[in-house]
TrEMBL record:
Keywords (A to Z) from UniProt: Chaperone
Species per Swiss-Prot/TrEMBL record: Camponotus floridanus
A Pfam family reported for this protein in Swiss-Prot or TrEMBL: DnaJ_C
Protein name per its UniProtKB record: DnaJ protein-like protein 1
Domain Chaperone DnaJ C-terminal: 48-207
Amino acid sequence: MDIDMDPFGLGGMGPPRQGGAFRSHSFNFASPNTGKAAGKDRAQDPAIEHDLYISLEEILRGCTKKMKICRRAIQPDGSTKKEDKLLTINVKPGWKAGTKITFQKEGDQSPRREPADIVFIIRDKPHPLFRREGSDIRYTCKMSLKQALCGTIVEVPTLTGEKIPLNLTREIIKPNTVKRFQGHGLPFPKEPSRKGDLLVSFDIKFPENLTQSAKDILYDTLPN
């Protein structure tokens, strides 16, 4: 069977995988034929898993993904024919990577076996600025050694597009310095009215070399 991303569902999807265990939250959607006595004793094909990549912005507010599947379906005369079907996934704010959404028995139909379950697994789409850490997100601010020692003002981006000014003119920034902005992270999955924090780390660029005069000035200025 084939599964394609519907044009109205923005995002990416990984290749199918047969079975596989993953600890996560799971959501099941039963097909109309699930549980009918006629097929309860038939063996079922292994679940077909697909990675569904979601951006952090979509995790922030929630989104709807529409997945088109093409499967073999049994016709009234007993033959099989390919048919298209649209599966709708309502991604809730704050869902964690690894969350599974299962559509029961939506795989290829066969007279002798139960159709496989179709399972979508939420994955984080790589972000150019942020990295998810639970319900927190982390941003790495790059700065020069001069800025780290002498102070600077930086603008910290957020997932909403807002920029937060961060005044660092009165402190020395060390490689292990972390600033925290409460409530600017992702929603908690079980309590979406609450949000995690935005953590700011610093990547300090050291000079490749120094002139002798610069070394002398630093030697006389910096404490031992």
